[in-house]
Amino acid sequence: MALNTINPTETNAWKKLEMHYNEMQKASMSELFQLDATRTEKFNLKWNDFLIDYSKNIINQETLQLLQELADEVGLKSAISDYFEGAIINQTENRAVLHTALRAQESAIINVEGQNVVSEIYEVKNKIKAFTNEVTSGARTGYTGKPFTDVVNIGIGGSDLGPAMAVEALQFYKNHLNVHFVSNVDGDHVNEVIKKLNPETTLFVIVSKTFTTQETLTNSETIKKWFLSQDFGTTQEDIAKHFVAVSTNIQKATEFGINPNNVFPMWDWVGGRFSLWSAVGLTISLAVGYDNFDELLQGANEMDEHFKTEEFDKNMPVILALLSIWYNNFFGAESEALIPYTQYLQKLAPYLQQGTMESNGKSVGRDGKPVNYQTGTIIWGEPGTNAQHAFFQLIHQGTKLIPADFIGFITPLYGDNDHHDKLMSNFFAQTEALMHGKTETQVQAEFDKQGVSAEKAKFLLPFKVFSGNKPTNTILIQKLSPKTLGSLISMYEHKIFVQGIIWNIFSFDQWGVELGKQLANSILEEINTKTVKNHDNSTAFLLNHFLINK
Ligand code: F6P
């Protein structure tokens, strides 16, 4: 079934939201709290180990009501069913979108073109499990009979960011294997990684859905060449022992020299940026063990069930998506910050940048017409407290409205409460400061207390005032574990989906990355032949400068 093509701005709810925005744009959150002692009770969600307090937003109950009406009017409910049931919702590529099937229970029935795909998924999961156990136990060895000590994930985009983010996030649960990632076609990247490796004990996992991606193939060839260098006494046959692949393109992977038994299949109904749940997560499984990988999937599956079955007013991904629409489309917010209060999630923002911006960075509606409203939010962020000492100044006192998600955990993994209490006091303090700001009266009272002269106070006062009223969501989770990480990622995936449905765009294709790839191929040809062809003046000038000075 095809998704509908409703322009959200033509819905009744949108028009009502525009009028409602006129009333709310000057609303003060601090005042809203003063007026309603039960505000937090109304605007928080509890589910499993998650608590989301979204009361520090410029909303009232009518805002939420109207946003839910918008979701109803664009047919979100039936779109969710289509998504989970394997309908061809990636219409421009004629594909279902079923990363949720990868984490479904074994008993589930999910059909793609009339065929239940769950048994195939479990076959691959069993293969991941067996392979992981062989590598981590030392039963599988390299060409000189030594167990593997290092794993190198070679991939880019979704074939890199998901595994890299999860391995970093789950470092606490890691085993003895050293894990490396090679993604950029920049030769300095791969050479820096190679420098750290012993060919006898290194396993290479080439991850490419298509097995045609320039960056990944170039890096794989460079590594293969290094692996076969005479100093190591390796032979062509040894490639099969040290290289495995994850791909839909089994033929290309075998042409590279990989034993077909060591190709982990994936399916075209798994989008690259949502693929860490498939065999693309092999490196995660190798790093933290299969059971932890499975827990990650389990956590995602539980969030899937929540999203699929919960009413919109209690549904975490839906509420987060609607709040984001409120700021993006009515307040004109240009970006959103994502601030995890744990160093482990330092790669969360780059990971979700692909998920969010490759999915919803679209300007043509599902009806093929240009949209006349803003889509795709810009996501950025860094862990707190580091972020506080870097860019928080702009969030507090800059001219832009930047709604932010604060993600924190109640239990620290090493049990260091001294550090954790300091970390979390910052976590709570920041959202409070962002909301209340600091008034002239408060600043003046501080000056009086400090005995600041009247003249100095008059000069300094405007700079020390914080307007406040900056919206935040507080996402408080019991503990960072494979399971809660799975739920967290799944929550954001569904937020992306909801937004794409409301914006009437196709979230699961990525035609926008093609043009640059094509041009790069023809420019490479010109660099190789040292002949600069027809370009605009600027590009020709730059290419000539590069060729002359290279
Ligand atoms: O950047 C475009 C893209 O297709 C991403 O969507 C994908 O994750 C990445 O390239 C890598 O693709 P592949 O896994 O096929 O190498």
UniProtKB/TrEMBL annotation:
InterPro entries for this protein: G6P_Isomerase, G6P_Isomerase_C, Phosphoglucose_isomerase_CS, SIS_dom_sf, SIS_PGI_1, SIS_PGI_2
Record keywords: Cytoplasm, Gluconeogenesis, Glycolysis, Isomerase
Catalytic residue list: 358 (proton donor), 389, 517
Compartments it resides in: Cytoplasm
Highest taxon of the lineage: Bacteria
Transmembrane segments: none
GO cellular component term, pick one: cytosol
Biological process per Gene Ontology, one example term: glucose 6-phosphate metabolic process
Catalytic activity as recorded in UniProt: alpha-D-glucose 6-phosphate = beta-D-fructose 6-phosphate
EC number, UniProt record: 5.3.1.9
Record Pfam families: PGI
PROSITE patterns: P_GLUCOSE_ISOMERASE_1 (PS00765), P_GLUCOSE_ISOMERASE_2 (PS00174), P_GLUCOSE_ISOMERASE_3 (PS51463)
EC top class named in words: isomerase
Metabolic or biological pathway: Carbohydrate biosynthesis; gluconeogenesis; Carbohydrate degradation; glycolysis; D-glyceraldehyde 3-phosphate and glycerone phosphate from D-glucose: step 2/4
Chief place where the protein resides: cytoplasm
Function: Catalyzes the reversible isomerization of glucose-6-phosphate to fructose-6-phosphate.
Protein name (Swiss-Prot/TrEMBL): Glucose-6-phosphate isomerase
Gene this chain is encoded by: pgi
